[in-house]
Design a protein that fits this description.
homodimer, alpha/beta, Molybdenum Cofactor Biosythetic Enzyme, Chain A, Alpha-Beta Plaits, six-stranded mixed β-sheet, five-stranded mixed β-sheet, about 40% helix
Chain lengths: ~400, ~400
């Protein structure tokens, strides 16, 4: 069963709106075990919409069209689908009444052009879910099918989950369950991971299930995705658990979390479990650490705060080496905020005999001081973000080692 | 001149990554006066990539492929382009050396499979900009062209602006000059702006040039885009200048900047011009302000720093009203960092008799204290970001009024 997505709207091509609908639909299709091999964006143009949807129907069994069901002149998905089906549009008075009720329920009169939204291609059926004024469509074309949903994400989601996905699964007669797990790593490159996992990937290529894939997650490390395809939920989870254990054995402590966990999440979880509090002194990282930690701990119960200041780079006040400055500023943070742990990262300065972009990470506790050096990337954005993740990763490993 | 975008990567179809690259490219093409009528996402599959790019080349003059230039086995854009060109790949040793230098600059060895990134289709040329390890390509196919860039946005942007857009404009022999200017506003809604500008938009609809368009810029205010299409650069700039002056007269001080200027940029510019320094006390905004300001003032010469702490919400220490706490914490910041100005925003707490989400903005200087109240959105992310922009906007207006 192959299903394509066609996102409709000139504003999508012009970049005025990012097409998050196709991504969401793609994820839902994958989770439902339906292949989605192409996704296309096309503007509000009759001929181009017809040719795009026809082309999609040729190579797939189903097409989901998203957008172009509004009341204005440039909303022509209804007309395009009727043309492809070779049928006329017919106004559905039940839908006209539903739209009128919708507006009256909000104390507004229905505009005349909203009636256009009730024009349905003859032979198409209306999707039961209709949270807005645009009815969704299920339009059969031979033994294939076109679905149409509004571009409003909330309305589209409801129609996808309520009608389209179940209809696709019924059509495909799919029994299989597809489940994924993402293993998040920090400290090796995509190609480095590929080398470590090369033998296992070759084995899995022969077995065919589960599969492994790599994904660079922007600056936030590399993800390894395990995908299992099987008959039932319990077996899928068993396959994922076993594969996760194998990968953990191969990758060790560069694995920092699973699925949606970030470096901040896992550090906060560990600190919370130990009842410990944290504060930071930030110079080069300029508040990036505070912003990320306070996003996940808005009450600042575990992450108590940070001082952001260039003073920590002052060699007279904080020390003549990066290691000294990192240590003294981490202690400053711990004392200033009265926390169990203070952390800081400090960059080597010119004339200190260190390689360019050498950074010193420091963790200060009441009983111990921990420090290490690392190299950060050259450009400022990556330097700051890398510096924060490296520092949190060092804290994670230090906590785990105790 | 028609140019399509093909975004490559199975992770895009599966919704693991949202394809923001195509949106960004679409916007750049539109600004450059190049039509982009289709954008397609396709997975890392040889046959499907070949057919998608061929199909795009049939109906357009140029295709920009984004992604699939990495070092791993599933990165096959190089092979696909060579196949479409009907040529072999050849390893470019200069590029191998560049990649090796890249890794060595970061203190890491180059993995063997990174050499694949230096395999270039014979007859294609390499894009001069190469901020990462993946070289971009300009691959002629008859009188048409395929461009290939990495999927990493930063690398793609650099290649687009440095090579691809100029090359497209040269190929299209565009005689007309299309120039845009974006007027950035804060403090009115899109529909509110449309009302104020309604008469002028009607006038321009009749004249045809320049045109005005609105664009909600996520959380960062509404943009008004003036686009002038004319024969030469000087005339284009004259049209933009005149229209900007008209819009300034209509919108007044809700305009905070132009084009790429952010609220931080314009505040820093004003402070720098006056030789003044700034510090902040952050509670609810949790480092968002520090992060944004220090990004643009990395040396922290103007923005001297911030203290991030829940202490500023402490009613015993900082006052029994939001206005008191904002005032006292702004003064604390000014004194702690020894700056000319201290700023803070503080949220009303339960039982203080204020409407939900009332926030107090405060600016403290040696001679004057300035305070005002505003209402912030409910969800935390928007509350923090709005709070920071509102506070900076208040500082901008206060500085301008002096």
């Amino acid at each position: 069963m192959r299903c394509e997505v066609v996102a409709i709207g000139t504003e999508l091509l012009l970049g005025q709106i990012v097409d998050t609908n196709s991504s969401w639909i793609g994820e839902q299709l994958a989770l439902a075990g339906i292949d989605s091999l192409y996704q296309t964006k096309v503007g509000d143009n009759f001929d181009r919409m017809v040719s795009t949807i026809r082309h999609a129907l040729e190579r797939s069994d189903a097409v989901i069209c998203c957008g172009g069901l509004g009341p204005t002149q440039d909303d022509i998905t209804r007309e395009v689908i009727a043309h492809i089906m070779g049928v006329p549009l017919e106004r559905d008075e039940t839908i006209v009444q539903k739209i009128r009720d919708y507006f009256e329920g909000r104390g507004r009169p229905m505009a005349e052009n909203n009636k256009r939204q009730a024009d349905i291609p003859v032979g198409a059926s209306i999707i039961a879910q209709m949270p807005g004024t645009a009815p969704g469509l299920v339009a059969p074309v031979g033994n294939k099918v076109i679905y149409a949903t509004p571009g409003v994400p909330r309305e589209m989601h409801e129609m996808m989950l309520g009608t389209i996905l179940p209809d696709l699964q019924r059509r495909s007669g799919l029994a299989s369950v597809i489940r994924s797990r993402v293993i998040r790593t920090w400290g090796n490159s995509e190609s480095g991971l590929a080398e470590v996992l090369a033998d296992r990937i070759t084995e899995l290529d022969a077995i065919g299930n589960p599969t492994l894939a790599f994904q660079a997650s922007g600056i936030e490390g590399i993800k390894v995705r395990i995908t299992a395809k099987t008959g039932d939920e319990a077996t899928a989870q068993k396959i994922l658990n076993e594969e996760e254990a194998r990968i953990r054995a191969l990758l060790g402590d560069i694995i920092f979390g699973l699925d949606e966990e970030s470096m901040e999440t896992v550090v906060l979880k560990r600190l919370r479990a130990r009842g410990m509090t944290l504060a930071a002194a930030e110079a080069i990282t300029g508040g990036v650490l505070a912003e990320r930690m306070s996003t996940l701990d808005p009450a600042m119960a575990v992450f108590r705060g940070a001082m952001i200041s260039a003073r920590f780079d002052d060699t007279a006040a904080y020390g003549k080496s990066g290691a000294d400055r990192a240590g003294k500023s981490a202690r400053f943070a711990r004392e200033e905020f009265g926390t169990d742990i203070g952390i800081a990262v400090n960059l080597a300065q010119d004339g200190e005999g260190e390689r360019l972009n050498t950074a010193f990470l420091h963790i200060s506790t009441k009983d111990h001081e921990y420090g290490m050096a690392t190299t950060l990337p050259g450009d400022r954005y990556r330097l700051r973000t890398f510096g924060v993740i490296e520092l949190l990763n060092y804290l994670r490993k230090t906590l785990d080692a105790q």
